[in-house]
Design a protein that fits this description.
- The chain is α/β, with parallel strands linked by helices.
- It has 3 domains: 4-67 and 87-145 and 246-309, FAD/NAD(P)-binding domain, CATH 3.50.50.60; 148-242, Alpha-Beta Plaits (2-Layer Sandwich), CATH 3.30.70; 311-375.
- It is built from 12 helices and 18 strands.
- It has helices at residues 13-25, 58-61, 92-102, 211-224, 247-250, 274-285, 292-309, 311-322, 330-336, 341-348, 354-361, 369-375; strands at residues 4-9, 29-34, 45-49, 65-69, 72-76, 79-83, 87-91, 108-109, 114-118, 121-124, 129-131, 134-137, 147-161, 171-174, 183-192, 195-204, 229-245, 257-258.
- Helix 1 (13-25) packs parallel to helix 3 (92-102), helix 1 (13-25) packs parallel to helix 6 and helix 8 packs across helix 12.
Length: 378
């Protein structure tokens, strides 16, 4: 097999994992990862449940995991549970260090803002044109107006505590907080006995993010727990939640392979992109033709396949966003969390069985019946 010159445009999560997988398993591919910033991954924490990533693929992501917990809590006004399956968090600092350690100097180019990409080249803002046999565009979300979307938006603050906070496992959802701007919950990741990420999250029909106002609410949440702490860092995010639309329209434009959010590779309900980023990296290393046209055909085909396979999750999203007023939407999740932990784990992994889907839709609906029925259609 002859070497193929491949450029990955964008060093976020999806681009970084694709590059790491190729560097490890496909040294025959002449790889270049190009990123506009001076570091990989930006300023982010990505998380996933144990079942979200196949055991045989964990070799790729485990070195970037900052912390793992064997269980986690969810808290609602009428239900509190500890779920007995693991949760993992990856930090951009560890991802950046991993990429720098594993990619050679010829394989990584930072501080190189990208102006445009084609099937066989990348054009930098500087005017330089870098040629390739194939290009993968991993520069983050684009053209999302092609889809019917809600949004999962958040502000997260990492706090350092004056004394140990006393938490030994995450709270994935604390929905006992005031419900505003859609379904709202607080998310807590206790990385060490004296550090914790506290994140205020909203499932909303609008992507607007009041960073300062939400930051104040997070401070109040921390103070209300009796904790004394100072903010060490802050991150924000606005993730798509798929309600409907046409995935082919997301791929309109230059016929270049796309991965990550740019290609529509995310869980329709959670907006999580890490499990798909791992799966796409595994798909990439199995390829034999790294030409731009071949990669575009493979990745666009996979995006369409997943879009069809995940229609059930978009149906549930329509119920969440359109069948209940914002202050009552938490009831949909509270109702969901009555179910078996194995079913819940498969849901987050995007692998719900036919029986799982029947169980999720069974029981007394937590929203008005007529609105629930009318919301099931796009």
């Amino acid at each position: 097999m002859t070497d193929a010159r491949l450029i990955i445009a964008g060093g976020g999560l999806a681009g970084a994992l694709a590059a790491l997988a190729l560097a490890e398993k496909r040294p025959d591919v002449d790889l270049l990862l190009v990123e506009g910033a001076d570091r990989i991954g930006g300023n982010h924490i990505w998380s996933f449940f144990d079942n979200d990533v196949a055991l045989e693929d964990r070799w790729l992501i485990d070195p970037a995991v900052e912390a793992r917990w064997s269980s986690h809590d969810v808290i609602f006004p009428a239900r509190r549970r500890t779920l007995p399956f693991g949760y993992n968090s990856v930090t951009s600092d560890r991802l950046d260090a991993l990429v720098r350690a594993r990619l050679g100097p010829r394989q990584l180019r930072l501080s190189a803002p990208i102006a445009a990409v084609g099937q066989d080249h990348v054009l930098l803002v500087s005017g330089e044109r870098v040629e390739a046999d194939g290009v993968i565009d991993a520069r983050g979300a684009d053209n999302l107006e092609a889809l019917d979307l809600g949004w999962q938006k958040f502000v997260g603050r990492v706090y350092r505590f004056d004394t140990p906070h006393g938490m030994d496992r995450p709270i994935i959802m604390d929905a006992t907080v005031d419900q505003k701007d859609g379904y709202r919950f607080v998310y807590c990741l206790p990385f060490t006995p004296d550090t914790m990420l506290v994140e205020d999250t909203y499932y909303s029909l609008l992507p607007d993010l009041d960073r300062d106002g939400i930051g104040t609410l997070i401070d109040h949440y921390v103070a209300g727990k009796g904790w004394t702490a100072r903010v060490e860092r802050e991150e924000t995010g606005v993730l798509p939640v798929a309600i409907g639309g046409n995935i082919a329209r997301l791929w309109d434009g230059v016929p270049v392979a796309r991965i990550g959010l740019r290609g529509g590779f995310f869980h329709p309900t959670t907006g999580y992109s890490l499990p798909d980023a791992v799966r796409i990296a595994m798909l990439l290393i199995r390829q034999h033709d790294f030409s731009g046209a071949a990669l575009h055909a493979v990745m666009s085909g996979e995006a369409e396949r997943l879009w069809r396979a995940r229609s059930f999750y978009r149906l549930l999203n329509r119920m969440l966003f359109r069948a209940a007023p914002p202050p009552e939407r938490y009831r949909v999740l509270q109702h969901f969390y009555r179910l078996d932990p194995g079913l819940i784990a498969r849901f987050y992994a995007g692998r719900s069985t036919a029986w799982d889907k029947a169980r999720i839709l069974s029981g007394h609906p937590p929203v008005p019946i007529m609105k629930a029925l009318t919301s099931l259609w796009p």
